[in-house]
Amino acid sequence: MRILVIEDEVRLCEALVQILKKHNYTVDSDTDGESGLDDALSGIYDVVVLDIMLPKIDGITILKKIRSEGIDVPVILLTAKDSIHDKVTGLDSGADDYLTKPFNTEELLARIRALGRRRGEIIEPDALSFGDISLDTQTMRLTGRGGDISLTLKECELLEYLIIHKDVIASKEQIIEKLWGFDSDAEANHVEVYVSFLRKKLRHVHSDIKINAVRGVGYKLRKGGE
Amino acid sequence: MRILVIEDEVRLCEALVQILKKHNYTVDSDTDGESGLDDALSGIYDVVVLDIMLPKIDGITILKKIRSEGIDVPVILLTAKDSIHDKVTGLDSGADDYLTKPFNTEELLARIRALGRRRGEIIEPDALSFGDISLDTQTMRLTGRGGDISLTLKECELLEYLIIHKDVIASKEQIIEKLWGFDSDAEANHVEVYVSFLRKKLRHVHSDIKINAVRGVGYKLRKGGE
DNA sequence: CACTTAACTTAAAATAACCTTAAAAGCATG
DNA sequence: CATGCTTTTAAGGTTATTTTAAGTTAAGTG
């Protein structure tokens, strides 16, 4: 997952890069329209985050050029103000989404994920992380502070689900639906078994992450110091 | 935090209401444009979730009417397809955000929270609270002025019921019906036992909330200075 | 004030949820 | 078709929660 950020405000640009990298995306950036356009035309990116107001070449022009070259990478426009005009022009020119400054991290990340879903592709970061562990869903490897280990498909899916839903308690029903499908006859014990497998592997990589069972409700990840 | 959902697909509508309620929002809903508009014009909502395709009056018309009445409640549009046209029309008409079906819970919740932040207000779920306590029904944790503690399922349901019905005296029969179901053979003593459990936990978090027994009638919460 | 009844509290029993492990079954690969 | 790996099944053990039950306290009533 490669993201290109084109934004001339240096501080904002760096902040964006840092945030995205933190979430395990691969990120490049430009601070002017000219080099931004060059990079965008390379066609190697999965998402472009594009400011409208840019030195040398403005965002809308870049967007039009990209599209006229037949590159249909998802583009998220950054509009300086709450200017409907920019939005409309941007969407007309082939943008997939816009974001009004100031915006926050969560929102940007949500939109990037949403873009992936909308196109039916999966624009996901290659690795998820939580506390002292990191999960590479591509290679299905779990890395902790004391080594790494490979997971089976179901283990990986379960941990992925728990990390993505780290803020809520994931019920067994939800987990079953996700891992075995909506009308499977999988039982609660399936989940319990995999939770048990995962806990063992978490210990194996010396992570201090715990899978907390909330009786009658579901499971929730917990970091060491909580 | 009051949310209005206007959506004609009954199943989707109910699902939305349930999900939002589960996250401690107060939710009303309509399944056609006419009653939807009526409710929206009341101006009491903090967010409106509005489907575009609706019987009687379509979403865009509703949106325009709302705005022409000077109500600037945040509106999230639900667009049936990936139709840029709908988005642009919607944004022109004064929508704050849109969501393309199908979408998932997380995304909707994120957008609702994001809307609040963007406007600088705090559109947060009412973490069910009363006096000096606050109850998170998601994690089943009770927080008081001197720490927090986890509740069991029944304890949580009981306290939730008491808080929601804080203005009236909750009878044991009502409580039994809510916690154990309509035709259970649960007895009055069950309620008494759980009231006792709760009182102990309220003391544990140093709350000054009291569960008042009204002889022959039921229970009612009371704040410290009452 | 004595009596009755409702409510309170607590401990112990029963139940249901969850955990773990081992073994069987399924599946792909060489 | 044998091997190794993943997934499912199943059983027994552990613990948290719910229910039962019994003794105690408090409130209302004549």
Question: How would you characterize the overall build of this protein?
Answer:
Chain A is an alpha/beta fold. Chain A folds into two domains: 2-119, Response regulator (Rossmann fold, 3-Layer(aba) Sandwich); 127-222, Winged helix-like DNA-binding domain superfamily/Winged helix DNA-binding domain (Arc Repressor Mutant, subunit A, Orthogonal Bundle). Chain A is 41% helix and 22% strand. Chain A has helices at residues 10-22, 33-41, 59-68, 84-92, 105-118, 153-164, 172-180, 188-204; strands at 2-6, 26-30, 47-51, 75-79, 97-100, 127-130, 133-136, 141-144, 147-150, 210-214, 218-222. A five-stranded parallel sheet of chain A has the order 2-1-3-4-5, sandwiched between helices. In chain A, strands 6-7-8-9 form a four-stranded antiparallel sheet, with helices on one face. In chain A, strands 10-11 form a two-stranded antiparallel ribbon. Chain A is elongated, with a radius of gyration of 20 Å. At the A-B interface, helix 4 and helix 5 of A face helix 4 and helix 5 of B. The first copy, chain A, binds a DNA duplex (30 and 30 nucleotides) through helix 6 and helix 8.
How would you concisely characterize the structure shown here?
Chain A has 226 residues and is α/β, with parallel strands linked by helices. The first copy, chain A, is built from eight helices and eleven strands. Chains A and B meet through α4 and α5 of A and α4 and α5 of B.
